[in-house]
Amino acid sequence: MESLNFIEHIIEEELKSGKVKEVITRFPPEPNGYLHIGHAQSIWLNFSLGKKYKGKTNLRFDDTNPLAEESRFVEAIKRDIAWLGFEWEGSVLFASDYFPQLYEFAQTLIKKDLAYVDDSTLEEIRRMRGVPTSPGDESPFRNRSVEENLDLLERMKSGEFEEGSKVLRAKIDMSSPNMHLRDPILYRIIKSGHHRTGEAWCIYPMYDFAHGQSDYIEGITHSICTLEFEIHRPLYDWFLDHLADPSKVRPRQIEFARLNLNYTITSKRNLKRLVEEGHVDGWDDPRMPTISGMRRRGYPASALTMFAEKVGVAKRENVSDMSLLEFCVREKLNKSATRVMAVLDPIKVEISNLDDNYAEELPIENNPEAPESGSRMVPFSNQLYIERSDFMEDAPKKYFRLKPGGVVRLKGAYIIHCDEVIKNESGKIIKLKCSQIANSKSGSDTSGVKVKGTIHWVSAKHCGTAEARIYDRLFNIEYPLKDKDKDVMEFLNPDNLSIIDTIYIEPSLRFAKVGESFQFLRKGYFVLDSDSTSDKLIFNQAVSLRDGWAKKN
Predict the structure, then answer these.
(1) Per annotation, catalytic residue among 60, 129, 188, 268
(2) What CATH number does residue 421 fall under?
(3) How many domains does the chain have?
């Protein structure tokens, strides 16, 4: 029997009782930045609920602050949702679509003597609100007449007053222990162009006023929010009590715990700082926990939704482990990524018993987890590169890679014997002279030589070159935002990016496409980066082959 989360229990009870006829959810981002991994969970939850209950899910941008919102963020968010594999119902919606109706709602509250225009400054309003443990002070403008408030609001709308000179406030309860009910601001004057409405408006609704009413206008049945909005719910209910038509669907707000991830942050304000202060190279930098950054790093969309499913839907705040996300990435890439050979820290190997003009093409499987992916031909010659870490001059007894006088199998190729170690004047090993064991070709080995180790390689005469970018955790402490007295940027990991200027890659990688993922055998999963050019390929490491987080902690 399927296990339901607490939100699904609520929905099924409401469907069974007839309270709800059709489930309509929404994903309502603010277009003031890129989406992050926490948003991926919310996207998965809202769209999955709509699909599961044969309802629908709207995409609506809560664009009520022209000072922070841009069309480029709208387009980035649309790309991220589509990449994750979800489809919204009908056209993309915007809170700015509802500006005329929201304005009418404000007028309705004034007519009911439930809203007033306040000439106090924001600093004075904050002071009058006081603290939760004692009542606040009423504004001296609270008892203006309905007629005066309607007139002042219209003049605010027409642009007669300066920014900061007046606001519209709800008239609720200045003694409420819930600070959101202490005459919250509904409208403020902002004389700045809007990304959609241009100069048509110079007053804009506050998020708390526009958000819930937009849900109501759209007929949303379930407003799924994260826990920080739980304290806002009484305010949203107050608006609906005084504005909603009882015969129409009234949204039910349900809160769940937002997704947090260790060694990074999901605070949009601080993500914006990372970008603007130059700690990263944009919102889609592969070090960022944004969906665009993770896509560029090589994380499959299916890995993010798998991660969201494994984290699940909870009522309590928690922090998820980065190793779980990387496990999901490995699980997906293991089944889809082509295995290729690339040498990141090379040492030259010369096979002395093969002629200089010797060349052969060897078949190597693309992915043993996906036999249908077939194989490819990889060139082999008497000059190779192997990883420096695959040779040890003073090797212990149970070292099964290459060592002086030892043997090792080259992946998909032959067994070689190390005959001589060549060093430069400073004592650094620059080349290994080896011999190929006769009749030891992989797949038809009749040499009788037993080997326990297999290493990867590339032909020095045929390989290409590329740049590799290796990523580590973004911050060097597990909970960067825990210490409120310190600037989170103090905890940035100075080694979160390492660049290897030149790696050697097998020829097939010259034809890789941007965004295409590969497993570099024995090194990790990599993706071709969008910074690549025809002259220079750049590969980002998505994850290593094994969990490296446990050993670091």
Answers:
(1) 268
(2) 2.40.240.10
(3) 3
